[in-house]
Structure formats: C-alpha cells, structure tokens
Design brief:
heterodimer, A: mainly alpha, MetI-like fold, globular, B: mainly alpha, 2 domains, two-stranded antiparallel ribbon, flat, MetI-like (chain A)
Chain lengths: 269, 300
C-alpha cells in the first residue's frame, strides 16, 4: 500500500508520509483545542485539568443558577433571532433587486453593502457607538439588532445572490406574462427555488449575531449585555470553568447549525 | 423586462420605443429600490459614522488640525504599530507554512476524504471565536493542559510562559486565521490540471522541479488572496490578542478601543481608526488588482 504511487508522477505514499503527518498534525491543531473544552466542562474541579479527575455537572448548574448568565443568554438569543429576520429580509430584497435589475448603479450599491465585511469590526463598533449615542440606541435590543444586521447583510447578500445565479429568471417572466404581479411571481415562483440559499443565509445571520463580541463590547452595557460580552469580560479577569460549560453548549449549537447548512448546500446541487 | 427584450418579442422596431425605454428604466429603478432598506442600514451605521470619524480626526476644538495624526508618531503609538505589523506578518507566514500542505493534500484526495478534511478545516470556522480563544487560554495557561503534560513527562521543571504574551497571541491567531488561508488556496488548487504534472514528468522534470516550476506558480493567485485576507484580518484583530495577550500585547484595534473607552480621547481614536481603515482598504484594493490580473493570465 505504502509503495503504491500516490500521484501520476510515481511519488509513492511512503515518500509522501511526511506530508500526511504534517497534515494530520495541522488538522489536530485546528480541531482538538476546541474539543478539549467539552470534557473539561464536566470536571468537578475549579482547576482546569485534563483529563478531569472527577466528573460532575456543577458548572452547568452554576450557569443555570446565575441570573446574570441567564439574562445574557436571553438577550443573545433575542438579538440573534431578530437579526436573522432583519438581515435576511433586507439582504434578500437587495440581492433580488440588484441581481434582476442588471442596472450599472447596482454594482456600486452591492460594493457598498459588502463594506461591513471588509471594514475592521472594531471600527464598525466605534462608528456605531458614535451613531447611536445621539439617538439613545446604545445598550438597547433594537440597537444591537440593527448593528448585527449590518454585519450580517453582506453574507446574506452574497449567499442569496449565489442562489439567484442558479435560478433562471425567465421563469418569473413567464409567471408575470400570465398575469402574476411581480411580488406575487417572486413569492410563488422565485422564492421557493432559492429557498435553500435564503435559509442558509438566515442561519449565517443568526450565527454571526450570536458569536459577535466586539460590537456588543462597545455598545451593549448594563442589563442588555450579550452572552459573548459577558464571557469576554469574565475571561479577562479570571478563567471561570462556568465558561467551559457555556462554550460546550455553544459548540453543540454550532455543530447542529453547520450540519444543517451543509445539508442545505448539498440539496442545492 | 428590459427594452431589448420587448424589441426581440415584437421583432420590429416599436414605434413607442421611447416610452418603452422609459418604462424599462423605471422598472429598473424600482428593482434597485428594493435594496434601499439594506442600503439605509449600512449607510446610517457604517458610511456616515466613517465620515464622522474622519471629521473628528481632522477637526479639533480650534479648527482644522493634523495634530491627531502627528501624535501617532509618538513612541507609544509607534510601538503599537510595530507590534501589530510584526504579529500580522508572523501569523501570515505561519498560516502559509501550515495551510499549504493541508490545502495541497485536500486537493489531491478523493471527494469523500477531501470533504472530510475540509470539514475539519471549517469546523473551527463555525465555532465561536470566543470559544476557541477560551480553549487556548485553558490549554496554554500556567497550570494549563500543555504545561501539566510537559511537566508530567518530565520535559520541563517550571511551567512555560505560553499565554498572556506574544507567543500565546500568535498561537491563538494562527488557529483563528488558518481556515481563511486554506479556503481560497484549496479552491485554486482544485482547478489545477494535474495532467500538466504528467507532462512535466514526461519532459524530464523531477517531481520536486515539477512541483516548484509548474504546480506552485498556478497556486499563487489563491495563495495571494489567502495571504492578503489573513494579513488584513490580523491588522484589525481585537478579541484574541486582547484575551491571549493579557494586556502585554498592544494591537492597533486595542489602542483604538482604549483611546475611546478608557481615555475618551476621540481625536486619537479617530485618527488611529482612519489610518487602519485606509490601510485595510488599500491592501484589499491591491488584492483586487492582483486576483483580477492573475485570473486573466491563468489558462483556465
């Protein structure tokens, strides 16, 4: 097996062994650190040892018993859910309009809409803080939703536009030539066919909002602190094992959403 | 429906061409208008504040000033700038060293193994940045996993200082940035025609020579995209350096946050911000030129 050629140019697997070893190490480097948090969250000790000497659920209990963590969790999910709606609706409308119109101005508009992805997030955070200060949106749920939506719109735009490219817009033309209005044709003909892209965009928007740290750090004070903001501040002071429990829950959620998005992607093709 | 479509349908030049054209333009305008809600959000929360930031950086209490910018030459700021660039270069270099073999291997594997490898590469991409940074804190701290393993194995007597310094920040940032390098590189490697390698061997090139002479040049556009992406993201990175650096590694983004939140010094914060913005947009503009040019010269 090892002596068989790995490529057409007769390099054997044995000669390539070093490559496989390096790649395996890099993949371990990418995956293992995140996974190690999971067993640690079930440790019974205050100290983070691996493998843990005794197992318990005390850090999950600590998380559920703390009203502060609970409140932050509720804020985070509320904001993520609303962000998903706002970003998906505005982003999909923009993607549809800009794709179908084929106007020259559309190109410039989409470049501007992509900007939040390009500008360093610390600058977005400072700018949003500046913009919210006079209108009192700092440390409010609507403020956080608007800020996170801006962050998510570029990805929604890109994902939905990619879906639109696979869709033959003439189908909508046919529907309209048979008397459907444009909004009706969009809802009944176009939207069902780009459904998977829109749903995968919505998932992305949800995750972006849930994981966002820097903007929340600058604009979400008081009882509107998000989960990630509270985690960040807790980590700066001391390494509390409660965070291992929260991290494990977040990893679980991420994996579920990743699987879901992969599923949607595979259905698209 | 555009004016051209109408003409195709009717076959001859319609007499009401002007009216149709006007209608088509109106239709186009209404479609573009669908992007207004998104555009309004981005405009109000990104474009206007960036303009405002620029204004704050050049307009002080007594008129226009460049003082905020000349102040950036002060040693404290200069040190931040140097740290930021050092870290960005180091992280980018390490990402290339680690990412190239993985992308190369993934691009040569069969579809099932390749998608498994790419799933592993994407896995950290989909877990929260904060969770991954926390994981590194757990691993690298003084009484952390790595130190206790090394001590149990008798390799070291006293714990190594792996975190709350430059080393920890570098490790954490490489871990976060690696997928950004692998993805574009992998995408470009997949398009490479491996028959070219056979042709090179046929013409007498050794595998090493064929690799460096034929294969690597074709990966350069993907590699360039990945390198610039990682570099730019590193320049403006906040979360991981703030936690793994333990206050000892002062990055550009942290200086902005500190000037604003701790000292309330909007002049310094805005000038630092404008410089970061200009650097970021400038580098990305170069990337666009680069990938645009290489896409034209590449055979595929």
């Amino acid at each position: 097996m090892l002596r068989k050629p790995a490529t057409a140019t007769q390099v054997t697997h044995l000669q390539r062994l070093w490559l496989y070893v390096v790649c395996a190490l890099v993949i371990i480097f990418l995956v293992a650190p995140t996974l190690i948090v999971i067993p640690m969250s079930f440790s019974d000790s205050r100290y983070l040892e691996f493998p843990p000497e005794a197992w318990s659920l005390r850090w999950y209990r600590a998380y559920l018993d703390s009203s502060e963590w609970r409140q932050a969790t509720v804020v985070s999910f509320k904001v993520a859910g609303l962000t998903m709606v706002v970003a998906t609706v505005t982003g999909t409308l923009a993607a549809y309009g800009l794709h179908v119109s084929r106007a020259k101005a559309g190109k410039y508009v989409s470049v501007l809409l992509i900007l939040p992805m390009i500008i360093p997030v610390i600058l977005l955070a400072v700018g949003i803080f500046l913009a919210f200060a006079p209108v009192g949106l700092n440390s409010t749920i609507p403020g956080l939703v608007l800020a996170h939506s801006v962050l998510a719109i570029p990805l929604v735009l890109i994902t939905v536009t990619a879906g639109m490219r696979n869709f033959d817009i003439n189908q909508e033309m046919v529907a309209r030539s048979m008397g459907a209005s444009r909004p009706w044709a969009f809802l009944t003909v176009t939207l069902p066919q780009i459904r998977n892209s829109v749903m995968s965009a919505a998932l992305l928007a949800f995750i972006i909002s849930l994981d966002e740290v820097v903007i929340a750090l600058l604009i979400a004070g008081g009882d509107k602190a998000t989960l990630t903001r509270r985690m960040f501040l807790a980590l700066r002071d001391e390494i509390d094992p409660t965070i291992a429990a929260i991290s494990t829950l977040l990893i679980g959620l991420s994996v579920v959403l990743l699987a879901l998005s992969q599923f949607l992607q595979s259905k698209k093709n | 429906m555009t004016a051209q479509d109408v003409m195709v349908v009717s076959g001859t030049e319609p007499r009401n061409e002007r009216a149709l054209r006007r209608q088509a333009r109106g239709e186009q305008g209404r479609l573009v208008a669908l992007s207004v809600p998104a555009f309004f959000l981005v405009g109000a929360l990104v474009l206007v504040p960036m303009g405002w930031l620029f204004w704050l950086s050049v307009y002080g209490s007594d008129g226009f000033t460049v003082e905020n910018y000349t102040r950036l030459l002060h040693p404290a700021y200069k040190e931040t700038l140097i740290t930021t660039f050092e870290l960005a270069f180091l992280v980018t270099g390490l990402c290339v060293l680690l990412g190239f073999p993985v992308a190369y291997m993934a691009s040569q594997l069969g579809p099932r193994w390749a998608s498994l490898v790419m799933l592993c590469v994407l896995f950290p991409f989909w877990t929260s940045l904060l969770v991954r940074t926390y994981a590194w804190l757990v691993l690298l701290q003084r009484r952390g996993v790595i130190n206790s393993w090394l001590m149990d194995m008798g390799l070291i007597d006293t714990p190594l200082k792996l975190v709350h310094n430059f080393t920890g920040t570098t490790i954490g940032m490489v871990h976060i940035m690696l997928p950004f390098l692998v993805l574009p590189l992998y995408a470009s490697m997949r398009t490479i025609d491996m028959d070219l390698m056979k042709a090179a061997a046929n013409l007498g090139a050794s595998p090493v020579r064929a690799f460096w002479g034929i294969y690597v040049p074709q990966t350069l556009s993907g590699l360039g995209a990945g390198v610039i992406l990682v570099f730019v993201l590193s320049l403006g990175f906040y979360v991981t350096p703030a936690l793994l650096g333990g206050g000892r590694v002062m990055m550009w983004a942290m200086q902005i946050e500190r000037s604003m939140a701790v000292y309330g010094d909007w002049g310094a914060a805005s000038a630092l911000g404008v410089v970061l913005l200009v650097m970021t947009l400038g580098i990305l503009w170069v990337l666009r030129r680069l990938t645009g040019a290489s896409a034209g010269s590449g055979g595929h």
